[in-house]
Amino acid sequence: MKKLILFFLFLNFENLYPQVLLVNDAIFEDVVLRSSQPVIVKFFVPKCASCMQLDPIFSAVSDQVSGIKFMQLNTQLNGRTRDKYKVRTVPVIIIFVNGKEVYRTNRVYSEQQLLEFIRKHAQ
């Protein structure tokens, strides 16, 4: 029972940045692909060091940019979406516009670099 409670608590505290919404397989199509706004999705694994380093960058950029939705998807728990988009390593950032993937990168090291990707591919 303790393990179940700890697992439940872990799932609820997974998203430390409330402006970046968590999505899953069940809602991905509705929330991401049918969005009228561009959507940037960070594919991650909770204990991945590179993913954790990207978290504050992703969050800070989400505060600076309007008209774009920022979301993240845990690839360990959402294999259908992970496999559909052929995500083999994490973190990966995919930009979706009008339900289509327009850009993908696994090389984001700074806020400025992420902002440049957004200006070039999402606006």
What is the topological layout?
Layout: H1 2-12, E1 21-23, H2 28-33, E2 39-44, H3 49-64, E3 69-74, H4 79-84, E4 92-97, E5 100-105, H5 111-121
Parallel strand pairs: 1-3, 2-3
Antiparallel strand pairs: 2-4, 4-5
Describe this entry's structure for a reader.
The protein has helices at residues 2-12, 28-33, 49-64, 79-84, 111-121, and strands at residues 21-23, 39-44, 69-74, 92-97, 100-105. It has 123 residues and is α/β, with parallel strands linked by helices. It has one domain (17-121): Glutaredoxin. It has a five-stranded mixed β-sheet with strand order 1-3-2-4-5. α3 (49-64) links the parallel β2 (39-44) and β3 (69-74). It is globular, with a radius of gyration of 14 Å.
Give a summary of the structure in a few sentences.
This protein is α/β, with parallel strands linked by helices and 123 residues long.
Q: How far is the first residue's CA from the last residue's CA? A: 48 Å
Q: Estimate the mean pLDDT confidence.
A: 87
Helix content: 40-55%
| Number of DSSP helical runs | 5
Oligomer: single chain
Structural class: alpha/beta
Number of domains: 1
Rg over CA atoms, rounded to whole Å, is 14 Å
Main beta sheet: 5 strands, mixed
Give the SSE order as H and E letters: HEHEHEHEEH
The name of the CATH architecture is 3-Layer(aba) Sandwich
**What is the β-strand count?**
5
CATH level-4 homologous superfamily: Glutaredoxin
